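## retry 2 of 3
previous attempt timed out at serialization; input unchanged, resubmitting
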Amino acid sequence: MRQAFGRDYLYEKPYMAFLQGLVDSAGYLIRRPGKRRLDKAGVRRILISRIDHLGDVFIASSVLPRLKKAFPSARIDFLAGEWTRAYLNTNPFIDRVIPYNAFRHNRTAGLFKRAIDAVAGYLRVAGELRRAGHDLCINLRTYPFNASTLLYIGGCRYSVGFGTGGYGFLLDRVIPYMDGVDEITHLSAALEAVGIDAQGLRPRFEPSEDALRRADALLKGLGIAEGEPFAVFHTGAGTPVKRWSRQAWTELGSKLMDYYGLKTLASDPVYNGINSCIALPALVSFEEYAAVLKRAALFVGLDSFPAHLAASMDTPVVVVWCGVNDAVRWRPAGPRVAVVKRGVGCAPCFKKAGCAGMECMRIEPGECLEAVAAFLGGRM
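## retry succeeded, writing output
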């Protein structure tokens, strides 16, 4: 957190907070939030904006059932990157996904293409939003490089969001930011800002019966009998710095078999094979993958979307936590979640590239096994 001109910003670099403070100081002289009230009776079209990564979008989507209950006749659109479509297209509360690949959050292309996509997308989406005429826009990203200017140019009639990413003067209602709380608390605050009860909010996902049947057939083909308990590993994360070693994954898989007789399926986009695990096919659809996690007796992964997905279905989850991120804020929400992390003094550092030593990722498989024992108990 950096402060400039009496305002708090979630910039890492002080000079960025200073520049944003200059912009906001001028902006607040022209326009101040809080002068208008939301006409709830007039809300016919809602836009939710979360333009960053898939895990963030998944957590943010927990607001959708509450919004639909509060505004049952309203149409709900979701502004997000193309990389989130596989999930968002399954969400029954969304009428339309509006794709926008923001430069800062796009991991799917090179620098030049990302820049072209971002500029072209910004202009295209601004036009689409103006034509759509949203009555209520809720920007759920608290960090900088959010969609505040885009929503303003897009002509939203009433906008709600956080000032910690800058451009708070463009909002009609600024949501207070809180240090030391989880992301669900901020989402709850966003709902409460528009008069919606957020008690008990958390992400939930339920695979369809067809997806469960297809997952059962897939598991049978991989040697997992009906009703047989199994574990799932996911070795990937949004950034390479969060990765755990192949040796650690292999050792943990062997220990699960030795101690619990538990076969392990590996969703492995990183190492192309974990010796102690059965490879889960890479081309499994999103819903099939979710159904496999639903059937699993245990999920072990990193700080990434699959951990949140598994936790949302109450599957026991063990997360090997990298110290670049804040476990208090970003740990998966659910009743059976264990975070395994090293108590290093520099964590969380919020450095996307980490450091040379990455002491925080020197986590032993035995430490994870202790967390597993809390869920699985003695031998199976």
